[in-house]
UniProtKB/TrEMBL annotation:
Domain Luciferase as annotated: residue spans: 134-201
Pfam family, one: Luciferase
Signal peptide bounds: none
Superkingdom of origin: Bacteria
Organism (species): Actinomycetospora corticicola
Protein name per UniProt: Luciferase domain-containing protein
Amino acid sequence: MTSAAVLAGALVAGAWARRDYRAWRALGQGGLPPTPWGWVCVTALRGVALLPAPSRSQEGPPSEEVENLPRRAAPRPTVAPHPVPHRVVDQQAPDELVVGLQRHLEDLARRPPLQMATSRWERHHAALWWGSTDEIAHVHPVDGSCHVVLPPADLDTVQERGWGVVHPLAGRGGLPRSYTLLFPPRDVTEAGHVAAVLRAAAEAFPGPRS
């Protein structure tokens, strides 16, 4: 390979890295520091996310609330390629719906042993926990999407009906195998369906998460 080809390759790689770093920073706060080193770490994790996903159990039917979910109207949002933070890049929820989902988690936390505490995985905002050991769900203020730990049957139904996708790192690095991204609601009706999934997840704890 000639020195000119090496230089051209380095310039292309550098331009891609600058664009990707800016796009990653635009996703907002997550579990990694918003620094060049954080971007290097998440770039390595993108390779891990391409590996075959760990298997999940399929015990039991979906919960009643998830079984009654309608199919989410197309189109589905575009999920950013970065696994941390795991966000969408379009169809962000209106601010009032984001606030409403957060209040829904806070209302659920009024039922012991549920409580609100800082997210173990996001590290920057409050999440719904089962006691002090298991994080159930949190809302992302930047786009209105949510992460939630679902029973396997609920996860399958949520994905099949277009309401979310399993996290690309689920089952790795301490993330539960059914760690799921729920898409942001676009209107009040969709917010009600997302809230139903969150409520079903809270009611299912402690339950199978493998």
